Amino acid sequence: MIKASIGAVPGLILSFLILAAVLAGTTALISRARKKPLLLPVLLAICMAGVSTVTLLPSGAGTPVGQCDTGLPGHVLTSSSSLLNIGLFAPGAALSTLLFRRPATTAATFVVFSGLIEFIQSVTPLGRSCSVTDVTANSIGALLGVAGATVWLRMNDRPLRRPLRDLAWAAGIALVGSAALAGGFNSQVKGINVVAIDDSRQAFGDATDGSDAWLSSEAEAVFGPGTHATETSAEKDGSRWKISATTNRGTISGWWPDRTLEKAWASNNRGDTGKLSGAQAGQVARTFAEKHFPDSLAGSDQTIRTLGDGSDAAYLVTYRRHRHGVMMPMRLDFTITKTGRMIGFTSKAVKDPALPQATVTENTARAQAAKAAGAKTTSAQLLAQQVGGQWRPVWLVGANNADVWLDGVTGQKVTPDK
């Protein structure tokens, strides 16, 4: 608060000097009229002028009106701003204790005063930041000032004034002040946990540090030299982050910190006029897969299909892996033009699950599906699917323009998880 105020509040020094002169002059006149010592009252007046100008002078920064940071003050003893707050409130509390010799009342008054300052900052358009951390730092400063002054009084044989009454006044001020502030904050102020937000942002930055550079490099490998990201985003998924980027040539996404790509698609998704054969397109895809998807490539079968007609057609190169006649959940697809340009790819890198042995044959599955759909079947494929969170061998049978899913072990109709 103070550090920001000095740089952000116009006329802070001048305002302090004017207010200090007014308060100190008035205090000196009153003390002289009452024939009391001048030094402590005048110094206390100057300290309060400093507290008032630093905390309540309008500024162009801060949280919106009606909000206050309610985050736990975990950095109160390590933050430079909080340490400055402690230093701001300690002298006034010490001088007040020396002047009135009522430490409990002084401590309670300064703590409530600190809360009042934050409340005023939150409900008025001063452009100041209200926070629990500031209240805590101010209160720590006040308590340190009171403690230091109390020790000095005892060391110099200066007795405290009416200790029991001092405690009674302190309890009353604390009770009434805290109740009033609690009511005011509950009715007028909305709490926001800025500390948690900042910590979350810091954790996000630490967790994804380096991901942008990695994905930009991969985008250039896919789309060619001169590719640069125009927008990036990150979304947490369990212990990983899905990193996505929009580039001047297309979109790409992958997983961090795994450094595994998920998919990419070029902005120019039309075929190119060229003479590349299907086998050559398959080699382009394999070379890229060997570097980026070796686990998916191992044990997989490659299939090449032509998309479109003529010299500007493209090739769809797919990789699928089968275990005991069951297609595993891994998926890897590439779209390659006849010039060898990669339009895009999609990767679903899933480890082969352990499955029970399928006992339902294709003929049995087709017969059951045809009966359920009331029509002839057109296709049947045995896939590894999750059903109720468990991996199962499942027949996907096409019949009557519909899909029928049958458990490969029990033959019962099932609905795979989305």
Automatic annotation (TrEMBL):
The chain crosses the membrane at residues 12-31, 38-61, 81-100, 107-124, 136-155, 167-185. The keyword Magnesium does not apply. It comes from the Bacteria. Keywords: Membrane, Transmembrane, Transmembrane helix. Signal peptide: none annotated. InterPro entries: VanZ-like (IPR006976). Residues 83-151 form the VanZ-like domain. The keyword Transmembrane applies. This is VanZ-like domain-containing protein. It comes from Streptomyces violascens.
